[in-house]
Amino acid sequence: MPRKNYIYNPKPVFNPPKNKRKISTFICYAMKKASKIDVARSNLNYTLLPIDPKTGNILPRFRRLNEHRACAMRAIVLAMLYYFDIHSNLVEASIEKLADECGLSTFSDSGNKSITRVSRLINDFLEPMGFVRCKKIKRKFVSNYIPKKIFLTPMFFMLFNISQSKINSYLFKSKKMSQNLKITRKKIFISFSDIKVMSQLDEKSIRKKILNALINYYTANELTKIGSKGLKKRIDIEYNNLCKLFKKIKK
C-alpha cells in the first residue's frame, strides 16, 4: 500500500489578518526582500553549524531542509516579520497564531489542534541555527504546552541580505523622527482667563508671555533641539492662533 500523505498543507502561505496592523517602512522593505529570495535555500543555511541551545554542542544535520519543512519556513519567515517589533526584537505573536495564519495548524478527527509543524521548525531548526532566540513564558498553572516569546536575531535578517548596519540605520532614523514629532506635537495650554488678560496687551507683550509659556513647557533638552529659529516659528504659530481666538471672542 502507498504511504499515506501525512502533511495537511503541503504549500502553506502566510495570510495576514483582515484587521491589518500598521507596519513600518522597514518591515515592508524586509518582507519584500524575503519574498524575493528562497530563505529555505539560502547559502547561510549551508554554511552555518546548528548549535543545541541547551548544551552548546554542534548538532548533526542534513545539507538541505526537506521540502515540507522548507515550505513551512518560507511562510513562517514572512509571518514573523509581519509581527516583528524592531525596537524590542520581539515577534508579537504566539507560535499558535503564526501557525494559524500560515495554514500550518492541523486538527485531529476528534478536533484537537496541533501546531507541531511550526514548533518543531522553531525548536529543531530556526533556534539551533541562531536565526531566532526563544524565551519560555512562565505560567501559574501546569500545562503540556509551554508558550514562548520569539526574538529575531541579526542572523535571521541575513537570510535575505539585510545587514545589522541597515537595521541600525533605520532605528536611528526612526528614533530621530519620533523625537522631532514629539516636539512638534506639543502645544502650550492657555486658559480663557489668560486670553482675556492678553487681549488687553500689545503684540510685544503677548509674544513675551508666549515665550515664557514655551520655556516653562519644554525641557532644556527639547528647547535646544527646537533652536532659536524653531522657537520663533512656534511663537508665531501660537500668536496667530491667539489672534483667531480674540476675533471669535469679540463676535
TrEMBL record:
Highest taxon, organism lineage: Bacteria
Family: Belongs to the IncFII RepA family.
Short name of any one Pfam family annotated for the protein: IncFII_repA
Annotated GO biological process: DNA replication; plasmid maintenance
Function (record text): This protein is essential for plasmid replication; it is involved in copy control functions.
Keywords: DNA replication, Plasmid, Plasmid copy control
Alphabetical list of InterPro entries matching this protein: Plasmid_replication_init_RepA
Protein species of origin: Buchnera aphidicola
The name this protein goes by in its record: RepA2 protein
Lineage of the species this protein comes from: Bacteria, Pseudomonadati, Pseudomonadota, Gammaproteobacteria, Enterobacterales
